[in-house]
Amino acid sequence: LVSAEKIGPDELISISAQVADLASFEVNSNFGLERGMTLPFRYLALRMILQNSDAAALAIAEHLTAGEEGFLKMMQQRASELGMANTKFHSLLLSQTERENPAPAIYTDPEIDWGKLVFEKDEHQVFQATIDGQPVPEILQEYRDTQILTATSSLNDLSRLAQALHSSRSAIEYLRVTEQLISVRVASSDRVIPVRSGITHLFTLSEGNVDAAYHHRSDRFSLTLSYGETIDGIPVTTLLLSAGKSPMIDETLKLYDKINQHYQRTALTEAGTPVPGHSEKTESGESFGLQYLDTVYYVHPRDNFYLKDDVVYVGNAPYLLPLQKGSMTGQIIFEMLDGTRIPVRIGPDRDIISSNTILARLVSQLYNNENLGLIIIGLAALICLILAVLLIREIVKLVYWRRMRRLERAGNPKN
């Protein structure tokens, strides 16, 4: 996220000796990095994302901040800006850190079924990891004070990061790549390097429902993030964690399917429709109706609209003239049963100009009195008809006069 927002896809990045040394440990790469190479950011970003490459991550860090430490500070600052209060980064080189510090034996303990790991809210509404109903810290008492070497975070923080990635046009494009051929120039010759996602099957099996995805797999855990929508068009973001080395493709697809089975997307309001039971007055006392300015959709269980009966109206009186149709004058706030509030903008259903002019008063009278408007339209039509008759009479007279003049000239050639 940080690098994609600061570096263009074609910007060249130099490969240092340390980066080349790290690349020698990456057996899943089909292209070796050598000191002195210059490669486009796009290739290094995809290598980092699709192949979990420490070497690519370090090359990008050196390009931006001259090293790992400076880049970690930049990441920490960005996390703070996103409100990720429970996140702290300790190392950029995850594979190297895990390689040099073997995982605790607890990860392979047959007595603990990590497949049953779930996250549940405690009495303080905070998510806690549990296995068979027991909080993980109670199961792993001896590892409570284990030194953290890579990073710490929380589900809420990870969800904030997922939202930020999806909102970043530059970052999300890299997560949409399944496979790609990238042209690079090495030693005065052009080469084409293929890069391929480890979860290409997720895109294929979802039949177009998954739009972007990321998978990280290490010796200690797996993380799969996906963005897409269900068959019915419900936007979905999934974040799955596992203590094993699984891409969790089946689990992700099951989530999409279950969401589609049990939830639906409904229009809460439609732009231009009247707001029932609500009207307002201008500073001069003139009444006007209200209409919704936006079409707003919300997701709810198929068997329950999941909305409270009461809505809250918030106005911004006094309403100074002129008022323009489409301008915002307040909000209608809907509330879901879980307390989620959905504000919808509202505004006047017509243009209201200043009441200090004769024209404004006339327009107001016409709007509020339909019969008066019909009478004025009828009178205008009658006047137009009379004027048309008079005009036709004058045209006939003019034609007759010109004809008589021609006859006079024909009978008296001297004139």
Main β-sheet description:
5 strands, antiparallel
- For the record, what is the CATH homologous superfamily label of the domain at 2-104 and 146-197? DD-peptidase/beta-lactamase superfamily
Radius of gyration: 35 Å
Helix content: 25-40%
In round numbers, the mean pLDDT is: 85
Strand content: 25-35%
CATH names the topology of the domain at 2-104 and 146-197 as: Beta-lactamase
Overall outline: elongated
Helical stretch count? 13
User: Cα distance, first to last residue?
Assistant: 97 Å
Low-confidence stretches: none
Q: Give the tally of β-strands.
A: 19
CATH architecture heading of the domain at 2-104 and 146-197: 3-Layer(aba) Sandwich
What would CATH call the class of the domain at 2-104 and 146-197?
Alpha Beta
Strands of the biggest beta sheet: in what spatial order? 14-15-19-18-17
| Class of secondary structure makeup | alpha+beta
Q: What attributes does this structure have?
A:
Peptidoglycan synthesis regulatory factor (PBP3), Domain 2, about 25% strand
